[in-house]
TrEMBL record:
Organism domain of life: Bacteria
Classification via Gene3D superfamilies: Bit1
InterPro entries recorded: DUF2000, Pep_tRNA_hydro_II_dom_sf
Classification via Pfam families: DUF2000
The protein's name: DUF2000 domain-containing protein
Amino acid sequence: MQFDTKIALVIRIDLEAWQKLNVAAFLTSGIAAAFPECIGDAYEDGSGTPYHPLIGQPILVYGTDGPGLSRALERALARNVKPAIYTEAMFKTTHDAANREAVKAVARADLPLVGLAVRADRKVVDKILDGLKFHA
């Protein structure tokens, strides 16, 4: 099935495995919160046990370094695409308000990004992520 939109995560490649998974989970929640229409129907197994719904389209995961993340952020903003972001400082916080404070304390050009997520028209996302490779 071909979707009109594309969801992509970009995660810094030098992180520990647990950090990559944490960043991916938080960024995906940002997309789900911003685009509730991307959530599919609830699941149910053959025994009738119900499960929560998931995002109903593929999520592509790319990897890059810090400058690659900064470039993707600037490309997204230049195309009026609001991303979800995750910064290094957020690994040291323990709650949502502290996360927002950590981001607010740093100018955009100096954000130590470790991940970002976007959802937009397929062609727009392709331009934002041009040159990036899938995460290994």
